[in-house]
Amino acid sequence: MTKRFWNEYQKEIADDHFFYERSCIRQTFFPGSEAAFLRIMRDVLHKDIYDEENAHTCTGIGYHSDFVPLETTMTVVARLFSLMKEKGYTNYVPSCVTSFGIFSEMIDMWQHDPELLEKTRENLRKATGREFEMPTNLAHPSDIIYKFREELKQHMKYQLVNRFTGKPLRVVEHVGCHYAKIFPERGIGNAEFPYVLAGMIESWGGEVVDYPERRHCCGFGFRHYLLQENRGYSVANSKKKFESMEPYEPDFIVSNCPGCSMFMDKWQYTIAEMENKTYDRDGYGIPVLTYEEMAGLLLGFDPWELGLQIHQVQSEKLMDKIGIKYDPDAKYRGVNGKILPQPEKPHVLKQ
Amino acid sequence: MINFGYSIAQTRVVNLDNCNFDKLEQLEKIVPSFKRCMNCGACTATCSAQQFTGFNIRKIKSMYQQAQYDKLAKELEQCMLCGKCTLVCPRGVSLRPAVMNMRKILNTK
User: Fold this and answer.
1) Model confidence at A343, in pLDDT bands (50, 70, 90)?
2) Which of A249, A306, A291 is nearest to A30 (CA)?
3) Are B4 and A233 an interchain contact pair (Cβ–Cβ within 8 Å)?
4) CATH class belonging to B19-107
5) Cβ–Cβ gap B6/A235 under 8 Å
6) Do domains A16-141 and A145-330 have the same CATH topology?
7) Which residues are bridge partners to A253 per DSSP?
8) For residue A191, what is the DSSP state?
9) Chain B: nearest CA to A347, how far in angstroms?
10) In chain B, fewer beta carbons within 10 Å around the N or the C end?
C-alpha cells in the first residue's frame, strides 16, 4: 500500500461542547456557510455549540497588514478567550482560518513566554476588567467536519459523483495558508500534505485533483490587496492557480478559508472581464464552495439557503451533475417571500 | 471590458518547456566551455563595465541559458571586450568569445 504521509500528522479535536466565534467577512461573502455549520453541528451531529453574539475581530486583517501592533492583537484575542471562559467552554472554534492562525500564534507565544502571558492578562484587566484562560482545544470548523466526516456521510442524500457518467467528481481542494503553513503541527496532515479537505472529498465520493500549483497562495495576501494599484499581483496568483488546474478540468473548488473562497470565486469574474478568459470548457467558470456549503449540499440543505446564489460563479451546473434538486424560481426569493432584484449579469462569464 | 484600475502582473517564472534553445546550442558548439560555468559571479565582480553601468555578465549568461533573448542584444553592447572575466574565471570559461558570439548569434535574423 502506498505510504500516506499525512497519516503521520494528526491533531486532537474535541468531541463536544464547542465555543463558536464567527468570522468578520464570511457572513458577507458566504452568508449561509456559518449557519450551515451550526445546523450540521446541532441538527445532524447533535453537538453542543455556543454561537457567541458578542464576538469581534481577532485583528487578523489589520495584524497581517501591519496596522495593528502585536500587543493589541494579544489583548483582543485575550478578550475573545474571556468570552469563552465566561460561557464556561474550553473548546474554541474560530470560523475563520486566519483567526485560527492568529490564535495558534498567540497561544504559542504565551506558552513560550509566561511573562508575556501575564502582561496580556494585565492589559486585558486594565482595559476591560475581564479574565481569560487559554482554550484546552483549538480546532477549525473544517477540522470538526473532517473528524465527523464518516458520521455525516451516513446522513447524506447525495455523493460527489457525476450522475451522468457515474464517475467521481474532480475536486480542487484549497487549504488556507494560515491553517497549517504557520504551525504545521496544528493542521491535519501538516503544511505539505494537508488532508483536512481532501479527507472530506474522498470520504464523500469525490476525487481530489493533484495539480502543480496546489499549495500556491490564492492571492489574497492581506496587505498585497489593500491598495487598488497592487491588486494585479493578487489576481496574478489566482490566475497562476487557475492555469495550473485548468487542464485537469475540475468540477469545482472547495476551500476552508474565507479569503481563498472569495478571491478564487470573484477573480474568475475579473480575469474573464480583463482577459476574456474562463477556466472551464463552457465559459461558466469553476464554482467555488466552502466546505460547509459542500457538506450542506450533500446533506440535502436548500442551496439558496446555503447562499449559493451570492457566489460569482453560479453552481446550477454542478448541482445538476450531482443530481441536487433546486427551485430556480426561488433563487432570488427573500425571507419574506418577495423576489429580490437580480444582480447584473457579467459580460464574459456565463450564468 | 471594465477598467478595474490595475492590470494583471505577468509571472516571472520561466517555463523552460516552452523555450527554444537553438541559439544556446549554436553558442555551445562554438564555445564549449560555456557549459562549465558554475554561476560563481567572479566575472561580474571583476568586470570594468559593471562598475559604471548595469552590465552584469553573470545575469546575461543565465538569461541566455534560459533562452530569454529579449533585450539581451542591447545589454551586450555594454561589454568592452576587455577579457578580464575570462582571466578570473575559475572554470576557464572563455567568456570574451562567448560575448562576441552571443552578439553575432542574436544579431543574425
Assistant:
1) confident
2) A306
3) no
4) mainly alpha
5) yes
6) no
7) A172, A288
8) T
9) 8
10) C
- CA-CA distance, B91 to A211, in Å (whole number)? 39
Distances (CA, A) of A178 to A61, A153, A181, B97: 12, 27, 6, 51
Per CB-CB distance under 8 Å, the chain B contacts of A217 are none
Tell me what the mean pLDDT of segment A23-37 comes to: 91
To the nearest 10 degrees (0 to 180), the angle between helices A196-203 and A291-299 is 20
Cell readout for B25 is: 546550442
Asked if residue A6 has pLDDT above 70, the reply is: no
SS3 A273: helix
Phi, psi of A307 (to 5 degrees): 85, 25
Query: Which candidate from B1, B6, B9 shows the least CB-CB separation from A273?
Result: B1
pLDDT digits (tens, 9 = 90+) for A9-26: 778 899 999 999 999 988
Q: Do B6 and A239 touch (CB under 8 A)?
A: no
Q: Which pTM was predicted?
A: 0.84
Q: CB-based burial of residue A150 (10 Å sphere; 0-12 exposed, 13-18 middle, 19+ buried)? A: exposed
pLDDT (tens digit, 9 = 90+) per residue, B33-44? Answer: 999 999 999 999
Residue linked to cell 478567550:
A81
Q: Given this model, what pLDDT does residue A221 score?
A: 82
Q: Give the whole-angstrom CA distance, residue A295 versus residue A159.
A: 10
* Residue boundaries of the structural domains of chain A: 16-141, 145-330
Examine the pLDDT at A4 and tell me if it is beyond 80.
no
Per-domain boundaries in chain B: 19-107
Judged on CB neighbours under 10 Å (0-12, 13-18, 19+), A239 is buried
> How far is residue A34 CA from its own chain's centroid?
10
CB < 8 Å to A229, chain B: 5-6
Class of domain A16-141: mainly alpha
Minimal Cβ distance to A274: which of B4, B10, B11: B4
Pick the residue of B8, B10, B14, B18 with the most A CBs within 10 A to test the interface with A by mutation: B8
What is the distance between the alpha carbons of residues A68 and A321, in angstroms, rounded to a whole number? 45
Chain A residues with CB-CB distance to B7 below 8 A? 232, 274
CA distances from A80 to A49, A103, A129, A135, B32 (A): 16, 10, 13, 11, 67
Contacts of B12 in chain A (CB under 8 A): none
From the list A108, A151, A205, the residue with the least C-alpha distance to A15 is: A151
ipTM comes to 0.72
What's the CA gap between A275 and A289, in Å, rounded?
A: 24
Amino acid identity at B69: Y
Helices (H) and strands (E) in chain B, counts: 7, 0
The domain made up of A145-330 has a fold known as Rossmann fold (3.40.50)
